[in-house]
Amino acid sequence: MSSRIRALQYYIISRLLLAPLMVWTITTVVFLLLRATPGDPVDAILGPRAPEEQKALVRQQLGLSDPLWLQYLHYLQGLLSLNLGTSLATRGQTVLDIIREYFPATAELALYSMAIALIIGVCVGIVSASRPNTPLDAGGRIFGIITYSVPLFWVGMLLQLVFSVQLKWFPLGTRFPVTSSPPNALTGLYTVDSLLTGNFEALGTSIYYLFLPCFTLGLVLSGIFERIVRVNLKQTLTADYVEAARARGIPERQVLLRHALKNALIPVVTVLGLTLAAMLGGAVLTEVTFSWPGLGNRLYDAISQRDYPTVQGIIVFFAVIVVVASIAIDIVNAYIDPRIRY
To answer: What fold, for 99-336?
Structure first.
C-alpha cells in the first residue's frame, strides 16, 4: 500500500471521527444562542396577555422551567436517540415530521439552483479566461464581482417585481397551483415524481414554478464558480503541457476543452462542499423572499415563533448535510487530483 493511500485513509478516518464533534459544537452553540436571545416561546404560544399561572403551567409542561443544564442534557439525550423533539408551535408534530414534509421542496430548489450556478459560472468563466484582456474578460470579472456581492433577497425581490408583477411571466408564492393536484408523492420532489409517474403536464408545471426562485439563487451563487474557473483556467492555459499541445498543431478549441478545462475544473469540485453551505443559507433567504414552502421558510417561521426544538432540529439537520457533503467531496477530490497530499 502506497504512502499516499495510507495518508488518505488516515485523513478520511480523522474526518469521520471529527464529524460528530463538529455537529455537537454547532448544536451546542445554537442551543445557547436561542436561550440567550430575548423572547419567551410561551408568549408566542399563548400570547403575551395570557395569565401568568397558565404560562407557568405550559412552561412546566414543555420543560422550559427546568435549569438550563438539565434542558441541555435532555436535548443531548434526544439527539443520541435520533429524537429531535416536538414543535412548540404545532403541538403534537415532531421535528422529524416537519423535516420530512418540508425538506423535499428545499432539496429540489437547491439541486436545480446548483445546476444553474454551475452552468452560468463555468460558461462565463470559460469565455472570460479564453479572451484575456478583452471586453469579454472585463465583463466576466464584473459579472463575478456583482453576483458575488449583491444581496440575494434584493435580487429576488427585483426579479419578482419585473417578471411576476410587471410582466406576469412567472407565479408568486407557491410551489404548485392550488387548482391542480401535485404528482403522487414518491420522493417529494415534484419534478422527479412527475417523471416517475409519467405525468409530463405536472413536470412542466413544476419546472415553471421552480424556475424563478432557482434562477435567482443560481445566478447569485454563479459568481463563486465564475471566479474559480476564470482564475484556474487562465493559469492552466499557460502551462507547459498546453503549450506543447498547441505546438503539435492541435486546434485552440480542442486545447481549451480537452486539455486545459479538465484540470481547471478540479478546484470546482472542492468548492462544491463550501458552496453547499452557502446554498442552504441562500435557500432560507430565497424561500422567505419567494414564500417557497420549504424547510428554510419553516425555519424562519420557527425562529419568529421562538420554537426551540424546531430551530434546533432543522439546524442540526442542515449541519449534518454540510458535514457529510464536505467529507464526501474531499474524498472525491483526493481521488481525482493526484497532486493532493494529506
So the answer is: MetI-like fold (1.10.3720)
